[in-house]
């Protein structure tokens, strides 16, 4: 009966019952019993055993109906709730969340263990109030008295932890499985986690405080035996949940990785994708099988896995889909598939839809052999069509170049538009050199200094300052394009001594485009214009 009433009450509790405001600890009328004036008319106060739930709710601003609902369970003992609201600084919203996770909180009379746990954590980690609240909101069970002993008392695990950490005999499973905040702290310190980081872990993942010590010891012991170069603690720090990984599962996963797949750099794999540790044998073998099926040698499979451990995290169906897409839609040659996998394994994780869009775009701009294009620049399959490829293609079109130029140099698409392609184009234009005079390869493969010196025949410093001004204007475009910093940029005079403003190296087709004072030419407006298809 009581349970039903509580359940009904909890159901209404969800959000609207208690105001979601972050009100500070409520004042407790009980603290000043002499002053009868301030709580006049209050009738729910149970002077003997602290306030009733109804009273607490009333103080928290609950409505009459809600209080009436709560009165039905007024026989419950709400002392812990009272402590949380009045003394520990929890909000009514916190408490209602906690109650919905752990209804038993409304029935426990033992304030002492709850208070001790709160104060212990607060003092140990010097927690901010919001972090303290978060921990208990997520793990209200910590406030219940543990069945075996007080949560903050040393259960004797520490010597075992120390023995484990110092390479001594492995600690056997302990009898009791009580959660022990103190042990958690001790264990983590013993594997090298700094107090500051323990605190971060606890706030981020409060469940940590509820893990059985035996569990944590077992997994720590096993991971320690793998002799990684980095500490086990650093693994925990980044992935606290590893402490909860069942050691049998972890051991089997390691055996599959090392013995069956042949992984040598296990630590790389584990640190990059620790979830591999809790995967079953079939899940681990599946990606390896897929790779072998498309023609990778066992040795190469290992290299791919070591380079891209996230492979274990991909949906096998999706990976299969990518491979099928490469073969059937894109038309990669049979021999090219393993080469692409080896060189760019992360492409296996790129959504087929996205790759399909790229392929459609390449066809749209007139690339005839898209498969060949993609084997020459596989990452292109992961580029964003609208944000990346289209503007880059539009830029070429605006410079009177065409798809033939990109087909000769697919890597053009791999250069950043704003920091390389645009400023170089603008610089060339300021010298009156049209892009058409060069092969794209000549323009973009060299670094900035080489580009300035060998392609344009300018001092590297000159290009550097031009580029800086260009980027600044890109970041804060002025309303009138001609009034901007670039317009103010004055190219140094070319004297007969330094030669002409003509490239010393111009491998492109000779194209003596119009004479006149080319220096007047500025960055074209189109470089910031709408991104339209050519
Ligand atoms: C937590 O510690 C701070 C500073 O020591 C203290 O002011 C605060 O009252 C403590 N909170 C609880 C709930 O014990």
UniProtKB/TrEMBL annotation:
Residues 499-534 are annotated as: Disordered. InterPro entries: MTERF (IPR003690), MTERF_sf (IPR038538). One of its GO terms (molecular function) is nucleic acid binding. Gene3D superfamilies: Transcription termination factor 3, mitochondrial. Residues 1-19 form the signal peptide. Keywords: Signal, Transit peptide. The keyword Membrane does not apply. Pfam families: mTERF. It comes from the Eukaryota. Belongs to the mTERF family. This is mTERF domain-containing protein, mitochondrial. It comes from Pelagomonas calceolata.
